[in-house]
């Protein structure tokens, strides 16, 4: 197969930041995707329905003329989140879901959850109104090894919630491990998971084996080859519980290359092309549409997009960086300078 037309994909996990970075980053997603869930980990975070409505307006303002792209908003969960505001935001069509960041698990998560008891009223409300719960599913207990954070979270946090909130639908964001794949399969359809391009492509030897590569550093960290193979199988079989979420996360180059470097990779300019390459390598291109365009909307109880895009086997070279007008200057692109074998042609 040298050419494939699929319904327009959606990105169920995207960071586009704010201000100058938002202006530079969002058009790269709006070009090929119908919708994307904009993550709320701004500084300060997007915690209320009013803040999310304002952020959505700022996002819409940077879209190219005539764009039909739709940003979907999330509520940044804290120990103090008000269930009434969450419900209001959901019913008014502002919030698509609530996003959990365990405090200090990742970029801009300092205001995240520290006391899991305190968020139970929010989860109960979400269960009642049919709202989705998106999780940065990593345990931040310092006694837990960074490579085991996902597995421990699933056992210690998510397993009890599945029983206490049987009507609540969960999403394990950026699924990164074989244990995680098995967990999600065992608990579908209550649990779904988004999978990034870089967890499908890289293992930890790529990241650390030939020099320390900060442009392979993200949270959850890239894991072993066995984990990568399990994720490729999960994504490409077309199972309804797995769907596209790029976790594209631009950072100014100075922050990525600092002594304590920022976690996150900017992959939006090569995202759908990279997924197509992975599905092609696995001989499963026929399942790309399910993963990219059908399974996500189904988990969120939304209709898939009506528009289509066409990808062709046609090589091009990924740009190295995007310019950012303002103090952040530029952000390097995941796979920048590499030859990409698939191209969006329509
Ligand atoms: C993300 C970011 O930069 O905002 N970073 C990352 O490593 N994935 C946050 C996140 O999704 O964890
Ligand atoms: Zn993310």
Question: Any overview of this molecule?
Answer:
The protein is 34% helix and 18% strand. It is of the alpha/beta class. The chain has a single domain, classed as Metal-dependent hydrolases (TIM Barrel, Alpha-Beta Barrel). The strands form three sheets. It has an eight-stranded parallel sheet with strand order 2-3-4-5-6-7-8-9. Strands 1-10-13 form a three-stranded antiparallel sheet. The protein is globular and about 50 Å long. N-carbamoyl-L-aspartate binds next to loops. The site of N-carbamoyl-L-aspartate has 12 residues, from loops.
How are the SSEs ordered, and which strands pair?
Layout: E1 3-7, E2 11-14, H1 19-30, E3 35-38, H2 49-61, E4 70-76, H3 83-91, E5 95-100, H4 120-129, E6 132-135, H5 149-164, E7 170-172, H6 178-187, E8 191-195, H7 197-201, H8 204-208, H9 225-236, E9 242-244, H10 253-256, H11 271-281, H12 288-299, E10 308-317, E11 321-323, E12 330-332, E13 339-344
Parallel strand pairs: 2-3, 3-4, 4-5, 5-6, 6-7, 7-8, 8-9
Antiparallel strand pairs: 1-10, 10-13, 11-12
Helix pairs in contact: 3-4
The protein binds N-carbamoyl-L-aspartate and zinc ion.
